[in-house]
Amino acid sequence: MELRRLRYFLTLADELNFRRAAEKLNIAQSPLSQQIRKLEEEVGVRLFDRSNRHVALTHAGQIFLVEARAVLARSREAVERARSAAEGHAGMLKVGYLTSMTDERFSRAMTAFREECPEVDLALFDLVPEAILAALRDRVIDVGFIRAPFRDEQLLSQRIWQEKLMVALPKNHWLAGRPGLAPKYLADETFIMVPDHGSMGLNEVIRTMCLNAGFTPRRRIEANQMQAAIWLVHIGFGISVVPSSLQGLHRDNVVYQPIEGSPSVSAYMVWRKDNHSTVVARFREIVNQQVKRKR
């Protein structure tokens, strides 16, 4: 069924006059009458009662009018959504992230994307680093956020920010609030760390910092994710050296202390090399805009 005939039908239904309807459609009366007749043949019922002086919808025409308006509305919506999708403003976006990266920059980027692209359906996945990379390879997610460079021919990455390390301490710890906390003061502490295979290089940065201060962390407790490490600090099991963005993860009994001469760690945005989605491209653009803004 041609949408053009539906538009002719709706115009005639509104005007109930062939001359006025034809003028409104900018066509002659004869082609309009022919198209209405063909529409009635296609539907299989009379849609209008008409005489020389009178045009009215039949009962079937009244029912058809409701459906025709809905069809045309849906067709316009489909066109608008297709155009919006082509511009990266509609569709679906699946994002994998680390809880430890959900600081002001990440939150600002997600909020800006939501405001600019409200028609995009979002799915967010809180994952460990190796799961983010696996989900990208398996096309479970479209974009991921991790903390270390990696090698993978299927994926592309971009460093989006750098940040210093801090120490998460119980509030009553003797180092809490100490100005100028040097790494050497941590020599006798119990370090709470994520497993090496899941740290994506962070543990090596921490060990190098400690070695440069003249010691190797001797006592260690493992937590599967950084938020779990912060909980263990909260209950007094030890201290944890974490990226500064983790300060957004609040626990009543935890304070975060800057480290003198702290090394920097990087945050990366990752996506599949073969993902040419305009939604992903627009998301990456917005992330770059927002992380460059001053706080």
SSE arrangement:
Blueprint: H1 3-15, H2 18-25, H3 29-43, E1 48-50, E2 55-57, H4 59-86, E3 90-97, H5 104-116, E4 119-126, H6 129-137, E5 143-146, E6 155-170, E7 190-193, H7 196-199, H8 202-212, E8 219-222, H9 226-234, E9 240-243, E10 254-258, E11 264-272, H10 278-291
Parallel strand pairs: 3-4, 3-5, 7-8
Antiparallel strand pairs: 1-2, 5-11, 6-9, 6-10, 6-11
Explain what you see.
The protein is an alpha/beta fold. It folds into 2 domains: 84 residues, Orthogonal Bundle (Arc Repressor Mutant, subunit A), CATH 1.10.10.10; 202 residues, D-Maltodextrin-Binding Protein, domain 2 (3-Layer(aba) Sandwich), CATH 3.40.190. The model has no long low-confidence stretch (mean pLDDT 88).
Features:
D-Maltodextrin-Binding Protein, domain 2; seven-stranded mixed sheet; Arc Repressor Mutant, subunit A; two-stranded antiparallel ribbon
Compose a concise summary of this entry.
With 295 residues, the protein is an alpha/beta fold.
